Please model this.
Amino acid sequence: MIAKSMAPLLAGASEIRAMFEEGLKLAKVYGKENVYDFCVGNPGLHPPKEVYEAIDYINHNMDPHLVHGYMPNAGYDSTRQCVADYFNRKYGTDWSLNNIIMTVGAGSALCAVMRTVFDPGDKMVVFAPYFVEYANWAYLSGATTVAVPPNEANGFEPDPAELKKILDPSVKMVIINNPNNPTGVIYSPETITGIADVLREAEAEYGHPIYILADEPYKELVYTDQVVPFLPDYYDHSIICYSWSKSLSLPGERIGYVAVPNTMDGFEEFMGALNVANRVACGTNAPSMMQLIVERCIDAQVDVPYYKKNGQELYDIVTKAGFTAVVPQGAFYLWVKSPDENEYDFIKALKEERILGVAGSAFKCPGYIRLSFCIANETIQRSAESFYKVGKKYFG
Amino acid sequence: MIAKSMAPLLAGASEIRAMFEEGLKLAKVYGKENVYDFCVGNPGLHPPKEVYEAIDYINHNMDPHLVHGYMPNAGYDSTRQCVADYFNRKYGTDWSLNNIIMTVGAGSALCAVMRTVFDPGDKMVVFAPYFVEYANWAYLSGATTVAVPPNEANGFEPDPAELKKILDPSVKMVIINNPNNPTGVIYSPETITGIADVLREAEAEYGHPIYILADEPYKELVYTDQVVPFLPDYYDHSIICYSWSKSLSLPGERIGYVAVPNTMDGFEEFMGALNVANRVACGTNAPSMMQLIVERCIDAQVDVPYYKKNGQELYDIVTKAGFTAVVPQGAFYLWVKSPDENEYDFIKALKEERILGVAGSAFKCPGYIRLSFCIANETIQRSAESFYKVGKKYFG
Model:
């Protein structure tokens, strides 16, 4: 009754669902306020006031046929131009609306690019740890995913030499998620340069493009002086996918884009195909009113210092409790080394103190756990005693 | 550079694009008001006032974390229950939120069902004429589409006997679009009964379910006393896909649902798989605020009598000009027989008088053209002289 091809997708779903239900169960027993749920990636901060103002303005002043009607599948000209202008201001590009396609969130942006590029049998490379939905999306286009092993020795920055080992002519795309989910690391310009060099060499050897697909929904959530490298400055075949889920706290709205630089070989043909892929495989077009909303909020963002404070405080609590963690540089995740070899034992120990985190195995990196700190600051504060208790169990 | 598997999708896109550009070109030469563009399916009526009121209410009174945040992938419990209640009131079902999954428009609803059901090599049956994006969506899951020939003799109602001829064990699904795009016909209870009988017989013979996928975005747009048959009353393996694009004039917003009756074999397993297909392949979840909006507008609809008047007047004009057309019973399309064997010649003749329509070939039914009447009534009125001129050329 259900397609055999659904099996790999269904297998992954049950683990996530189990975790979600665990949280509900604990909340029922102990009360929601006594459960420290660090599982979710659902931003806790409200959207900035510009979002409410934009909704009001659009609802009361704009032509409803424009606001809620069909537009070209790639999105409103005005919204696409607004995004292009943002890049031009910030990165000195000379892009126009033709470089931008609006999408149903970053997920659909990534899917549309994969559909444009992958034939069955092609390969996609990811750097572990990574968001496993990437592999599911590649699977929809018949591509398989191969992972470069986690580079624990260098603070989870990808190792270009390891990437080189894994390449073969069937590799058509490499995903870079920067700032990174789940590690909170910002990949450095040196790392990106190293990756670009390896890929350029492979392109020349294999005689076909290998795209870098940059998934950058966290690009504004930076807590250090680091600059998130702008990939088109490093590599011609870069494609940028973005979502306002994090920067404007709109994850339910499914609003994002794909940006493709002019340096792309066969730029016009590529954009034409991407536009069709987005129409057929990714929901026809990005939600219309939401396009007009983000256009009016292009320079707005949530209270980033709040997340910075959350990250610092959670890091302090976790390390004071005796655990080892990666200092969060961006995104909103703390990546904690499990004191147990099997991190599910660590997760169990945390759960006994009503702390919920996600196993590193869910990101193909056993031995770690991910704690989301996009939650209320009070929850982090109140979780301290529980972390200390668990720490005492491990370290006395 | 671009996946070979994109080729069939790209082939179709260029014809639609050419038509769109033709309209822009004519408007530039003759002025927008002197071009009678009957190509589009973009509803011309504004959304009902309930939509504006709902946006205002939600923006000013609801928790923004709820409004714009993640919800379960299947949608808000309250929205799903509201849709279930609508079915319960209207059709006497006893559904709950578990029967409903909210989607990114009807397109994603159909895609999610196809992804759940189709393995590569499976077949989908459609009744010509049909919306060709159906075949593109099936192609994404590796399924091929076979069409039952147009039943011109019986006013374009599908012929169950012809369906029977085309069935084989690889057929897993049959699409029924009722009221129909592009013919404007409402399939009768007799036709639906006939189709259900044929499919039940085939299910028994082949030993697997054959689903009816009902695409029903036009179900409120009915201009006669006919009742659009409620498929689950006729056939257990019916799945209903819906969008508010037409009934609330929200086509840009991408908001719809899949409804699955309890009578489905393996109901829970099916819904679980459908939920995963929707998450992975169809944009994660339906846009969040728009879910809450349609929940508040569940009994609202656009000014249907306006479309009815449009349909009658366009029918009168076209037939007075000498052409033959199907009386529109529902949806917002007039299906006109081409006086030329090749309908592209007819389209050319119309274009000389600044009338734009879509070739029946685009719906796999040569010899006809489709005129959309979801436009301003004045445009229809003003087009009369042009139709009469073209009629004179053909009929003297």
